Amino acid sequence: MSNCKKTLHAHLKLLLIATFLWQPLDAGLKFSSVSSSVLLEPNATFQVSRPSMVTGFSDLSIVRNFSSSMNTWSGGYQANDILAYDDTNPQHIVAPDHLLAGQSIPEELDRDWYVDNSVITLNKDTDLLASLDVYNSCTIIGNGHTLDLSQGMLSIKSNACLYCSNVRLRGFNQGSIQFGNRASQLRFSDVTATMLDDLTLTTGGIYVQNTSTINTGDHLLSFDLGSSLTVDGSVLWYETLGAADSNNIRPSVAQDPYKKRLTLLNNGIIKTIKTLASGGLSVEYTYTITSLAEVSKGKPLTVSSTTTLSGENNTIIFSALKDPIISIAPGKTLTVQDVHFDKFSFDYVGFEGEDSHILFDNNTIISLDIKNYELNRTFTFVGECIINGNNGTLVFGPHAGFAVAPDSSLLIQNMTIKGLSDEQIFCMDNSGTVSFGGAVSLHLDDDYYFKQGSIELMPAAFVDVNESASFVYQSNRRSIINTGATLQMAYGAAFYYDPSINNRDLLVLADEDAAFSLYNGTLVSSTTGMRLTKGVFEIVGAHNYLENPGAISLSEGIMLGDAVDPDNNIYWDFDNGNVAITSGLLVWANILPTN
C-alpha cells in the first residue's frame, strides 16, 4: 500500500457521468452528476488500499498515482444500472438503492415497481395503483403524507422488510398487502393505517417499533397461525371511529398466552381510546389513572405534595392555549410514569416555586401539541421515555434541556429543535442513551457537546444537524446509526469526532442501509482517527469538507472500510456532491470479497 500524497496546488477530481447501482458484494464510489468531485488541498492525502474497488474508470491504475497532470477520470455507463419503464416494452421499474435527494415516487404509481434496498420519500399524497414489490429491505419516509393502497398492493417478498416511517397508509384490505413468507415484515414507526375492509394475515408479520395507530373502524385485523404482530417498546393504538369495539385486533393477549401470534416487547402495549373522565384532579398522594382522562383549563391537575401519577398505560389528553394547567406547589415533585401525554406542551406545567419539579419516569410517552414555542427549563427522563414532536418546533432557551438519567433512554422523534448548544441534551452518565426516530432537525446555536452515554438513530430515522457550528462527539461509548437511518451534517454544520478514549470505531453504521451524510457540511476527526464501515457515506452539494488536522500515520486518519473484511466495505455515494480533503489523511480501505 503506497502513500499517495498530493503535491502543492494539485487537484484530484473524480468526474463521472454514470449512476451506479451498488450490489452487496461490491463496494465503490457512486457519482450521479458530472459535477461531483473530490478535491485534495495542500497537506491532504487520499490513500487507496485496493484500487480495483474504485469502479467505472477507463484506467484503474491511475488510482495509484495522483498528480496534477492526471487529475480527471471519466467513466461510462454500466449496463442495467437503471431499467426505466418503456411503453413499448412493459416491465418493472428498478429503483436505485437510494433515490436522489428531493426525488420522490410519482403522485400515481400505475406500474409495478421493483425495489431492492431502496429509500423512497413521499413529498405529497400518493395513490398506489399497481404493485410495489419489496426485495431485501425498503424504507418509505412519508413526511406525514398518505400512501393510498386501496387499488394497489404492497408485496413484501420472502425474508424482506418494508420500513414505514411518518406515513399514513389508507385502504388496508385483504388485497392491499402480501407477504412472501413468515419472515417477511412490515415495520411501523409513527404510522397511521386506515382499514377499508377486514384483513386476515396468514403469514408474515407487522412490527410496531414506534407509536402508531390503526383505524379499524368496524373492521377486524386478524393474525392467523403463521403470521405475527409485535409491539416493541411503544404503543399500538386502534380506533373504532365510533363503531362498536369488538376487540378489533385479534388475538388479544389473553387469547394468545403462548405468544405465537402476538408479542409485546419492552413494555409494548395495544390500546384503544375509551371515554373521557370528567372534572379536574387534585393529587396529594400516589394516584393511578384507570382510563383515558382530560386535563384542560376547566379540568386542571393540581399537585400539592410530592407524589407519583401512574397512568397504567392510559392517555391524558391536554387542551389549553397558554395558561399552565398542571400546577406544582413549591418544594414538591410530580413523578409521572406509564402514561401517554397527548397534545402536551411543556409550558402547560406551572412551577409555583424554584424548587418545584416534574420528573418523567419509565414508559412515559409525550406527544407534543403541534406548535412552535420556547423551552426554558431542563426536564429529566428516567427509564424508557419518548417525546414525539408531531413535526413541531422547540426553541431552546439558555436554561432549556433534556437530561437522561442513568440506565435510561429518551427517544426524540419528529421535531425540530432550534437554539441547541453546549450540553443541552445529555446523559447523566455513560449508561444513558439519547435516541432519535422519524425526522429530527437540530439547529445549532453554538457548538454542541455530547460527552457521555450513547446516541442511537432508530431504523429509518433521518437526523439533520444545521447551522455553522460543531456537533462534538466526546463520549467513550459506542453510538449506532441503524438500518435505513441517516445522520446528516448540513448547511455549514460539522461533526467533530473527538472521543475521550483512543477508539476510532465509536460511530457505527449498522448495515449497508445506514448512512452518514454531508450536505454542504464538514466531517472532522482528531488524531484518534475515525473509521466508517458497512454503510453509506453520502456527499451532497458543492461545499463539503473532510478535516483531519495533525494526522501523520494512517491510524490517525479518516478510514472508509477496514482493509480486512469485505463485509465492512463502505459505499461512497456522491449525489451531485463535491468534497475537499483539507488536512490529514483519508484512507479508502474497501477490499474485494475472497470469493
Topology:
Elements: E1 13-14, E2 29-31, E3 37-40, E4 44-48, E5 72-73, E6 93-94, E7 108-109, E8 113-121, E9 126-128, E10 131-141, E11 146-148, E12 153-156, E13 161-172, E14 177-179, E15 185-195, E16 199-201, E17 204-210, E18 212-215, E19 221-223, E20 227-232, E21 235-239, E22 249-250, E23 262-265, E24 269-272, E25 281-283, E26 287-288, E27 293-296, E28 301-303, E29 307-319, E30 326-328, E31 333-344, E32 349-351, E33 357-360, E34 364-368, E35 372-375, E36 378-381, E37 384-396, E38 401-404, E39 409-422, E40 425-427, E41 433-450, E42 454-457, E43 462-466, E44 470-473, E45 479-481, E46 486-490, E47 494-497, E48 507-509, E49 515-519, E50 522-525, E51 530-532, E52 536-547, E53 558-560, E54 571-581, E55 584-588
Parallel strand pairs: 1-5, 2-54, 3-54, 4-55, 6-8, 7-9, 8-10, 9-11, 10-12, 10-13, 11-13, 12-14, 13-15, 15-17, 15-18, 16-19, 17-20, 18-21, 19-22, 20-23, 21-24, 25-28, 26-29, 27-29, 28-30, 29-31, 30-32, 31-33, 31-34, 33-36, 34-37, 35-37, 36-38, 37-39, 38-40, 39-41, 41-42, 41-43, 41-44, 42-45, ...
